[in-house]
Amino acid sequence: MQKPAYSVKKGRQKVDSYSHPQPYVYPPYAYVAYSYPQYPYQPYRSPIIRRNSDKIGRYEIVFHWNRLDWNFPDSRMKQEFEERQYWKKAMPAGIKVDQQGNFYVSVPRWAQGIPSTMNRIVIKNGKPLLEAFPNWEWNQAGNPKALQSVLGYEIDEHNRMWLLDQGKIAYAPSQEGSQKLVIWDLTTNKWIDSIPIPNEIASYRTSFLNDLVVDNKHGFVYITDSGNGEGWTGRVAGGIIVYNMKTKTFRRVLDRHYSTQDFPDFVFEIDYKPIFKDRPLKLGADGIALSADRSTLYYCPVTGRNLYAIDTVLLRNFHTPLKKINKAVQSIGSKGTTTDGMHADNKGNVFYTMLEGKGIGIYTSKRNQFSRFVSDDRMLWVDGVAFDQKGSIIFNSNRLHQMFGNEEEINWDYPYNLIVWKSFVGKDVKSYLYA
User: Fold this and answer.
1) Would you say residue 142 lies in a domain?
2) Is residue 152 part of a domain?
3) Shortest CA distance to 24 belongs to which of 319, 414, 373?
4) What is the pLDDT, as a whole number, of residue 98?
5) At residue 233, does pLDDT exceed 90?
6) Residue 5 pLDDT class (50, 70, 90 cuts)
7) Residue 140 lies in a domain
8) What's the CATH code of the domain at 113?
9) CB atoms within 10 A of CB 112
10) Which DSSP letter does residue 408 get?
11) 384 within 8 A of 353, measured Cβ to Cβ
């Protein structure tokens, strides 16, 4: 039986670093990207820089696993999880931290047997384990009122968690009421609201509710629907969904627009290996970011390299004709890499994951420039990126392309299959939510 390996940072350790070559022009506060030695090294500990700790671009490992494991409430659940090897499809997706310093991770139920889809990372006997959040009842599979499959979520400036429930388990059609927005107060640990997302807004069959951004100043939430609810390589019906907090109504825009679809006949590689081999991956609108002034919504598909943008004034008015919205889309240009997650800061920049580039990039809107910020060979499929509001970004690498495509490439004994990273970006740099 495969045993999990874990690590959580302990103590402080001085690590020498060196500069990457700099083929790109960096934003004002991103001058240097640093790298650490690669596997194998024995032993290897998560480095924390003691000297020059405020250097921008320094990064460290916060947690790492060979595979995920849970703090199960009973031995029966754990036994089934181990014997049926459900852990082989247990993939950490979004990583975020709240105002109290708690780390959260979503584990979407794209396969059967995922114990809980929303989790808090807890330390037990020095090991980082997942624990159902807010509790096990709220993660009951098959109960449409509970959380079924969470991929994207946000923690806003009021310390409220906005959970986007895909509603689907193992790509089966969503049950009535299972697709929803759930709002949870992390300060009081109390449920606030659940808002179902109906079939006419996000098809129970084809939708793949991916990620969201929150605009409390104007009272709106923007959601990407990747539109690949029939599978990784099937047809795509992408779009953007807008939620009005005041009226509690949704509107779908840019439905199957070229900017929310997969780029035709697009294929890409990571480490010179085709993604999904002979079955090209097809994913529509995925990454999403909201500018600090809340005026621009950025988004991008996974299967394509372009970044797109649209004025949110058009989206906030539910009477804006759909044709006018379609014509208002701006193509910002190619990021030079495929991207999964994105997150804007409070300075006018957008941080995006680099799948082909294995790391994090930055789009500087004032200069209209794309830059590489940090990269590491172990950053295989960097999924999500967020801020800790203390000057660092938090992001994770999860080998999605291998776990759901080329599983034979995974060595389950390797202790760095799944990694949570942290990188310093600037003392006063925070999420767009705090602008």
Assistant:
1) yes
2) yes
3) 373
4) 97
5) no
6) low
7) yes
8) 2.40.10
9) 12
10) G
11) yes
User: What's the mean per-residue pLDDT of the chain?
Assistant: 88
Longest dimension (CA), the chain: 61
Q: What is the mean pLDDT of residues 222-249?
A: 91
Percent of the chain with pLDDT strictly greater than 90: 81
DSSP designation for 24: S
Q: Is 60 part of any domain?
A: no
Q: How confident is the model at residue 279 (pLDDT cuts 50, 70, 90)?
A: confident
Strand-pair partners of 359: 354, 375
- Which pairing describes strands 285-290 and 273-274: parallel, antiparallel, or unpaired? unpaired
CA–CA separation, 18 vs 13, rounded Å? 16
Angle (CA) 15 45 120, round 5° = 120
Both structure tokens of 36: 């650490």
Whole-number Å distance between alpha carbons of 206 and 296: 27
CB 311 within 8 A of CB 329: no
List Cβ<8 Å contacts ≥24 apart for 69-75: 69/4, 69/6, 69/127, 69/129, 69/130, 70/115, 70/116, 70/119, 70/129, 70/130, 70/131, 70/132, 71/122, 71/124, 71/129, 71/130, 71/131, 72/115, 73/136
Coil, strand, or helix at residue 308?
strand
Please determine, for residue 12, whether its predicted confidence score (pLDDT) is greater than 80. no
Indicate the pLDDT class of residue 232, thresholds 50, 70 and 90: low
- Cβ 343 vs Cβ 388: under 8 Å: no
CB neighbourhood size of 233 (10 A) = 15
CA distance 215 to 209: 18
Alpha carbon distance 291, 390 (integer Å): 19
Range of the structural domain that residue 111 is part of: 90-168+183-193
- Please state the domain count of the chain: 1
Which residue's structure tokens are 């002034």?
A: 293
CB atoms within 10 A of CB 38: 11
- Report which of 156, 163, 105, 110 is spatially closest to residue 397, judged by C-alpha positions: 105
- Calculated CA dihedral for residues 142, 214, 60, 68, nearest 10 degrees: 0
Flag whether pLDDT at 249 surpasses 70.
yes
Residue with tokens 């001085």: 14
pLDDT score of 97 more than 80: yes
Q: Average pLDDT in the 222-246 region?
A: 90
Residue 426 tokens read as: 């600037």
Q: Do 262 and 236 touch, CB atoms closer than 8 A? A: yes
